[in-house]
Specification:
Helix content: 25-40%
Number of helices: 28
CATH class of the largest domain: Alpha Beta
Strand content: 15-25%
Amino acid sequence: MRSGSRYRKRLVLFHPHTGRRIMASYDIAAIEVKWQDRWEAAAVSRVTEGSGKPKFYNLQMYPYPSGELHMGHLRNYTYTDLLSRYKTMRGYNVLTPMGWDSFGLPAENAAIKTGVHPRDFTESRIVKMKEQLRRLGNVYDWDREVACHRPDYYRWTQWLFTRFFNEGLAYKKDAPVNWCPQDQTVLANEQVINGECERCGCEVVKRNLSQWFFKITDYAQRLLDDLDMLDKWPDRVRTMQRNWIGRSEGAQFSMDIVERPEVSIEVYTTRPDTTFGMTFVVLAPEHPLVAELTVGTEYEGPVAAFVAEVSKVSEVDRLAGGNDKQGMFLGVHATNPVNGTRMPVYIADYVLMGYGTGAIMAVPGQDQRDWDFATKYGIDIIRTVEPPADFDGEAYTGDGIAINSDFLNGMEMAEAKATIIDWFETQGKGARTVQFRLRDWLISRQRYWGCPIPIVHCGSCGAVAVPDDQLPVLLPEVDNYKPEGRSPLAAVDSFVNTTCPSCGGAATRETDTMDTFVDSSWYFLRYTDARNENEAFSRVNADYWMGIDQYIGGVEHAILHLLYARFFTKVLHDMGHVSVEEPFDALFTQGMIVKDGAKMSKSKGNVVSPDPYYERYGADAIRLYELFIGPATDDAVWNDNGVEGTSRFLDRIWRMGTGDIGTLTERAATDADAEIVKVVHRAVKKVTNDIDRFAFNTAVAALMECSNALASWMRSDEGGNQATFDEVFPMVLLVLAPMAPHMTHELWERLGNQTLLATHQWPEWDEALVAVASVTLVIQVNGKVRDRIEVPIEISEAEATEAALASPRVQAILDGAQPRKVIARPPKIVNVVI
RNA sequence: GCGGACGUAGCCGAAUUUGGUAUAGGCGCCAGACUUAGGAUCUGGUGUGCGAAAGCACAUGUGGGUUCGAGUCCCACCGUCCGCACCA
């Protein structure tokens, strides 16, 4: 890219001979600052709940305050501001707040490196980020700013935690959890991607630790069911959530152990119809019965060794084994409840303790995993579903007729399932059950820069919630931020040692902090009442603004944040704090900006800073290119020349508005004048419809086309009509304003308007002008375009046919012959078939 | 492996509603104008092949199909991306 401001350069350039200023120009920097000040002074985005207008809650996912915005980030911010300004002009009471997801590891890691307090680090970056958002021209209701690291916010995060705790929705338990050795903290399942830490990418290991969980599984069914209501969400995101929740229906039943009559094994299966085909039983290596069944036997030693071996292997490697399944016989047998068959009991690495009962009935005939294991260890295989005649696979998992299954024989899968479950239930041996893949949300973290968990551990009272009047539990100052397997808070004696709020005895504080996804699970509610000192938010305000009419963010949160926030909203609904059950009525997931084949990121070194573009082209041109770069849903490749293009377009609008293009005269309107009015009305309609469907790239294209037409009209020999220009040019400015607010505001003012453009109403188009009187009728012969004629739009089928056949081109091809068939679809097309 | 999305000029992309003018708009490129100069601005051109032109033929990943007509619908394949991945 070239350096130096084009606009500044133009300001000093004049034609050397004529003295005429040869370049339309304006001091873009001065105009930007001027209007940013005006918007602030006019408080265009400060809203109250008491407006008579319909409300519109416009929200983007609040960002981590990194301090450095790059072109990839700006796309998102441009969309939000565009929508904010557009909806305001459309007459809505628009809430567009902004805040900071300001707890988290970057600030803490910086503190470890440089010693600067995470709070100071974070606050300074917030200041920088706000400057950058202002520079882009974005307007927010800053009176509602929230930052989750500030005590006036996390006080209420803690308050919410204690509500969850009191309801039994927050609990502490010992469990094998995901431990990230790099970040020295535990992670939620949702934060482990293919066995790796979502943040740092290093391999996660399992550790048995006592951790805090939120009981999101209590809400699994509702979280699943209500996805159906979210019809303004991308299907993709809903599907991902459905899969993550992972509901399955089946049966649970127990089996007696032949050698140990006092012991029975519970199994869960989604294929109870295949129970007659069960030839062995498998326990997960971590299953509690493993030790019990082998203690004192010859199997005890080898099995213990095997279990130790398996637990050493990371989950990734364990799953990476694919078809090579490792297992071991336990020396005992189980009885198949449906036919009394005696079957060996194994442990195997392919059965997971965390799902179902941690034990399975193995049916190799109908399950490929069981097939693999059975063939490896020489176990019987019985088919109980008749495979299709042409089936040449191993296990057959599809639907079919039950065979070798006694009273199920001849039934199809669904009927067989229902029948056997009824049988289990009447025999009292088992029951119909539902399983979810979703696990409870692990929220404790062994890190400093997060919200302290407001719990006191008392020797006699157990875990006690910190009472409301003692909130917030402030983050203590620490000497060392470095995590060493436990929270840095644990090293602060004055923090740890306290008294029990319940009995007054000596007690210790919980030293873990919360996952930052807890903070972000309710911030949108705080925005509705951000300065409330007595409550997290008032129900009146929350009910006025919720649900969020448009939520914009990255698809990377499809499961994490979006699932947690839905969970929180449902809990708060159930507690009576808010009426809605779903927070986000409409969700839009925008694509990323890609450069050199990767998402822009500091670590990849492919970040494009907006600074030089601000210098040379200004905020409006950047915004416009962010909109124009491609479909909003798709990833887009950054093109250094793109801003040049949108800048040229803006420049043309500017020169048109300041009389530097063509001529305008006072005269009676001509056909060309009438036509340009139509062109503008059509553009207004298209821009409006395109914004409504998030097709910003085509909205910009429509305006470019419109401005090209305007310029040609003004440059034509007869020039443009002043009255016509005065009628249509402001319309163009108005619809361009949400995209390029600075320049349009300036021109709007220079055209003599007293009112602020930002609060002016959106222009209406006249359908009569949008409608076309005549169209091009395409005449095809055998599907190939052979002629085009102008016809009135209301042309009849007969007239169109006649006109087509009268075409000299068609006549020439027909050469006197009769067409076999004529298909007329007036006024668009006639196809003559010969 | 399973599921989903996508594949259009040199590049990014358009073709909304119901199958009906494929390639809008931008970038880039070529030529010209104004110029001491142009990296500004303006004018014209720009899918491929044949042709002086009119025009003709061929082009939406590949191959089939449905249809008067397919970028759009159906089938198979190739490629790219995303999600899930021993969840019983």
